[in-house]
Amino acid sequence: MSQCTSNLWSAALHADDLARRDTWLHRLDPRTHVTITVAYLLAVLSLPLHDLSRLILLAAYPIWTALAGGVPFAYLARRVAIAAPWIVLVAVSWIWLDRRPLVPGHPWPTAGCLAAASLLARLALTVAAASLLLALTGLSGLTSGLLGMRVPPLCVAQLWILHRYALVLSDEAARLLRARALRSAGRRLTWRQAGTLLGQLCVRAFDRAERVHRAMEMRGFDGHSLRAFEICTRRLRATDLAYASAMILWILWARFGDGAAGLGRRLMQLAP
Asked: Is-contact 73 80, C-beta < 8 A?
């Protein structure tokens, strides 16, 4: 748990540092990245469960974006690792639920193995795409882009508060674990102690969130006003439109076109 909280903090801080870089991708309008990311997430999530070939082709987008934007792959791997435990159990269960053989006469691999691989691939691709969006725009750029796209301010405020309060929760968890480590003399954490710590964490995080909320209200924040956010109102440049159009066309081709299956057939034809 201590490692998880430290990963949350380091990932959040690293995302802010990455958003300050000066690459041609960082100079694009935040609305461009938001549009491309939404189209990419819809393409990945709308694929059939056992369609793994198109997922392999769609994996080119986060790889290309990370290389062009100077985003380290280790940063993406940490973000995926934070979200992995929630999906791994679901993916593993598919192996036992669907035992139909993929190849007649061979009990292994099964359709459940393909479904599990597909779920894990979707996890990695969606988390990587969302992490790249945050690394290229930053939280302030993301909120300004969303407001510039006429997203309701209440939704933008909820996203901003969710991001901030997640850091508050991880900070309180790190403090509790540090205090216990200093007083436990190396003894292992029992289930009863873990339950007590979890209750204390909820109470302390709630109290701190209340203090933060009161401080925000004293500074004029009401959840609906746009004074706390910068709105992206400048016109999209030709570079933004060209890049967004090219990426969306590629995503549509990878989702609905011949894709990886056609590429595989061509490679098989070239093979001796």
From this structure: no
Please state, in angstroms and rounded to a whole number, the distance separating the CA atoms of residues 139 and 31.
13
User: pLDDT for 171-228, tens place per residue?
Assistant: 788 888 888 888 877 778 778 878 888 888 888 888 887 888 788 788 777 665 555 5
Q: Hey, what are 262's tokens? A: 């056609």
Q: Residue 96, exposed/middle/buried by CB under 10 A (0-12, 13-18, 19+)?
A: exposed
Reported as a single tens digit per residue, the pLDDT across 25-35 is 999 999 999 99
CB 100 within 8 A of CB 111: yes
Task: Say how far apart CA 196 and CA 184 lie, in whole Å.
Answer: 14
Q: Report domain extents, the chain.
A: 1-151+235-272
Q: Is 272 exposed, middle or buried (0-12, 13-18, 19+ CB in 10 A)?
A: exposed
What is the CB-side half-sphere exposure of residue 104 using CA atoms within 13 A? 0
Cβ–Cβ under 8 Å, residues 26 and 44: no
**Alpha carbon of 83 to those of 13, 62, 89, 126, 130: distances in Å?**
17, 17, 12, 11, 12
Closest by CA to 131, choosing from 65, 84, 220, is 65
Local structure of 141: helix, strand or coil = helix
CA distances 193 to 5, 107, 186, Å, are 18, 45, 14
Distance CA 34, CA 12 (A): 19
